[in-house]
């Protein structure tokens, strides 16, 4: 049986996220009869290949914000005499799958029934076929949500947009259709009629692609001017307004004020928790606002179903297909990050906004000006100074914990050591300590920060995760060390990194204490705008002085990852059986490096793709999309999690989060005794967040999101409970097991 990508007919039920309706017995019987007839006409080996390789889904291709309102089945309305077509059905989706499969075979063999491909099409056919599949999938989504009528022009010059309605019209012919197909000597054979429509649509599509290709000087992938990847943005006269300055200088605040005054716009932040923070701030101030991250989409709809004009998103989810008045891109210096910098680069050169406000460090100014010279945009630079003083102390804290005071934050670059410090502080002093590190769920980090800001915690022990994304009222930053492990070796903390972390000091406001007065750090301690930086060792303090006095290190290059169109062109140049991991490695070696751009690090993506390639029948489009999933190959269950989710996509299976064995929710019932136990719970949260990421992109396959959200909240509560040591006996046992 040919699998439907929306409705699982073989299971006798349908699932829907916007509407849900059950097929009547008559229509189900008719649908099954049609599928049986189709199945009997196709050889077994072909049917098997269809099962494994054809999965033309109604999703946006590879990346970007996905359409969330899917309908599994829309029942037929009466068909009027003027050939008004009802909503596209599940059966029609199967016609598209069959038609694409048959067309692929014919294009590959170079033999079509209704037109002849000459030599001018030979080099273009593979490119056209791949993009044709993509555009048909998009057209199918749009057709699901609208009605249309078929005209004679649609039959004479069929297009991707009109094909879905034309295919449906074949099922319910009128006099015009009968006369047209009779003139083509096709008669009333509906299978031949659909075959004709597919081939003629592809013929016109192929000619368009061939014309565009002949006009281009060179389609070899080059990153010398990726601004050309976004022609619509180039047609706008954009202003790039740089808000640059150190931490705690008010640069982002001023950019957000402009965003709030705009008619429509977006904010793009580096982290999900920061996007949510701005989202909640806007909502609390009475602004309607949407939230779009890789894991969740919250649309603020009015009574007429219109989305809010403002959106907050992570930078990877920036909408590059909508025109805005204002866009704010935060932490723009991240454009040079070898792993994630591509998202800032694509947002900068691709966002369709008349004003693009870029917030970050002064290190980025020259690079943005160079990019603007290539994009033709105007650049305005606004410089900001720190709102309060920042003072690096002359003496290190030799007595360590006995020198701690309320409002201090100890910066540590080891999760185990962070938890050891917390246990030791609460065992040896009267201070309560909160913890923040990268492996914690974003919601847990936010809650720990809130408790510290509100005075429930006296001090904070944190990793470099405090460098961005959290508003913390820290009076003094204390570095435990000036070295960190980069995955292979110990390195000195980079100068920009040291400056950013140290700059978090000075946003201090101690909550009133009922038991003890707040001790003074020095004579300036009453000035909450003054921040202090120190260390536990003399060597580290010496390094801090050097870094804080160091001149700004400029960001030299912007990191890139190819757009969907560039990938499509590049992949089409390879034989059909070439592994995607091989193509990616070849791409990395072949692409010429310009003076201001370079390709993103692809090692982790390659590892992800290699796992997906082991799944028989996995589509290239799905591999490229899932290659951007937020999962690290360093996680212990990386392969089993990725394989499980990928297999579910490839086989078109419908599953909720409790049906994946590697999501071991029994951990929620167990006591957490040590760092390893806590890590198991944190990893479970990461794997579940990947499930939610998959749900955003394949909502018809990863279902019942509400249950996943409940499970996510339970994990976060369990982790928060552990870090809070609510049970005193439990706290003492935890402290003993930290080996301090």
TrEMBL record:
GO terms for cellular component: mitochondrial degradosome. It holds the Pfam family Helicase_C. It is an enzyme of class 3 (hydrolase). The keyword Transmembrane does not apply. It comes from the Eukaryota. One of its GO terms (biological process) is mitochondrial RNA 3'-end processing. Its main location: mitochondrion. Gene3D superfamilies: 1.20.272.40, 1.20.58.1080, P-loop containing nucleotide triphosphate hydrolases. Residues 27-46 are annotated as: Disordered. Keywords: ATP-binding, Helicase, Hydrolase, Mitochondrion, Nucleotide-binding, Transit peptide. This is ATP-dependent RNA helicase SUV3, mitochondrial. The gene is SUV3.
């Amino acid at each position: 049986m040919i699998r439907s990508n929306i409705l699982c007919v073989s299971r006798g039920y349908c699932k829907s996220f916007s509407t849900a309706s059950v097929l009547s017995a008559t229509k189900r019987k008719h649908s099954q009869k049609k599928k049986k007839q189709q199945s009997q006409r196709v050889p077994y080996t072909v049917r098997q290949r269809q099962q494994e390789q054809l999965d033309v889904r109604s999703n946006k291709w590879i990346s970007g914000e996905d359409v969330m309102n899917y309908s599994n089945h829309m029942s037929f309305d009466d068909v009027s005499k003027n050939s008004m077509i009802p909503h596209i059905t599940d059966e029609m989706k199967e016609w598209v799958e069959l038609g694409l499969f048959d067309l692929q075979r014919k294009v590959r063999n170079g033999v079509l029934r209704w037109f002849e491909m000459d030599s001018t099409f030979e080099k273009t056919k593979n490119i056209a076929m791949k993009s044709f599949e993509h555009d048909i999938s998009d057209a199918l989504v749009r057709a699901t949500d609208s009605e249309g009528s078929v005209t004679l022009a649609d039959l004479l010059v069929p297009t991707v947009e009109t094909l879905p309605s034309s295919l449906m019209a074949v099922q319910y012919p009128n006099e015009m259709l009968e006369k047209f197909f009779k003139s083509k000597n096709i008669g009333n054979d509906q299978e031949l009629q659909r075959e004709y429509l597919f081939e003629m649509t592809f013929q016109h599509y192929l000619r368009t692609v061939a014309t565009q290709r002949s006009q281009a000087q060179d389609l070899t992938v080059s990153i010398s001017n990726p601004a050309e990847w976004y022609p619509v943005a180039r047609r706008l006269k954009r202003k790039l307004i740089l808000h640059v300055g150190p931490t705690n200088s008010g640069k982002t605040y001023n950019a957000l004020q402009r965003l709030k005054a705009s008619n429509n716009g977006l904010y793009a932040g580096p982290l999900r928790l920061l996007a949510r923070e701005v989202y909640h701030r806007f909502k609390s101030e009475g602004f309607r606002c949407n939230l779009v991250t890789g894991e969740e989409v919250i649309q603020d709809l009015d009574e007429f179903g219109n989305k809010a004009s403002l959106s907050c998103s992570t930078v990877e989810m920036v909408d590059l297909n909508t025109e805005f008045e204002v866009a704010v891109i935060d932490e723009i210096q991240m454009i040079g990050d070898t792993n994630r910098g591509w998202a800032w680069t694509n947002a900068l050169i691709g966002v369709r906004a008349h004003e693009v406000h870029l917030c970050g460090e002064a290190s980025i100014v020259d690079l943005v000006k160079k990019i603007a010279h290539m994009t033709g945009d105007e650049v305005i630079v606004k410089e900001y100074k720190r709102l309060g003083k920042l003072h690096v102390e002359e003496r290190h804290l030799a007595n360590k914990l006995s020198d701690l005071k309320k409002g201090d934050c100890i910066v540590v670059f080891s999760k185990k050591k962070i938890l050891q410090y917390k246990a030791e502080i609460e065992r040896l002093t009267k201070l309560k300590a909160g913890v923040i590190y990268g492996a914690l769920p974003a919601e847990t980090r936010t809650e720990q920060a809130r408790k510290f800001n509100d005075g429930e915690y006296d001090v904070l022990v944190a990793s470099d995760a405090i460098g961005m994304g959290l508003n913390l009222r820290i009076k003094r930053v204390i570095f435990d060390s000036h070295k960190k492990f980069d995955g292979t070796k110990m390195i000195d903390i980079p100068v920009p990194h040291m400056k950013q972390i140290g700059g978090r000091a000075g946003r201090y406001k101690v909550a009133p204490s009922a038991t003890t007065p707040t001790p003074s750090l020095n004579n300036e301690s009453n000035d909450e705008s003054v921040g202090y930086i120190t260390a536990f060792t003399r060597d580290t303090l010496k390094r801090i002085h050097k870094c804080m006095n160091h001149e700004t290190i400029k960001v030299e290059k912007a990191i890139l990852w190819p757009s969907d169109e560039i990938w499509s062109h590049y992949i089409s140049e390879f034989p059909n059986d070439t592994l995607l991991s091989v193509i990616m490695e070849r791409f990395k070696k072949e692409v010429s490096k310009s003076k201001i751009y370079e390709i993103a690090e692809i090692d982790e993506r390659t590892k992800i793709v290699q796992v997906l390639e082991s799944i028989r029948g996995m589509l290239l489009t799905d591999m490229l999309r899932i290659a951007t999933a937020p999962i690290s190959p360093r996680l212990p269950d990386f392969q089993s999690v990725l394989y499980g989710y990928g297999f579910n996509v490839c086989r078109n299976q419908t599953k909720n989060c409790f049906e994946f064995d590697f999501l071991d929710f029994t951990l929620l019932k167990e006591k957490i005794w040590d760092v390893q136990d806590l890590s198991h719970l944190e990893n479970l949260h990461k794997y579940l967040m990947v499930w939610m990421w998959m749900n955003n992109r394949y909502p018809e396959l990863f279902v019942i999101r509400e249950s996943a959200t409940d499970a996510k909240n339970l994990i976060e509560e369990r982790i928060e409970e552990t870090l809070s040591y609510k049970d005193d006996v439990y706290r003492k046992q935890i402290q003993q097991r930290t080996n301090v």
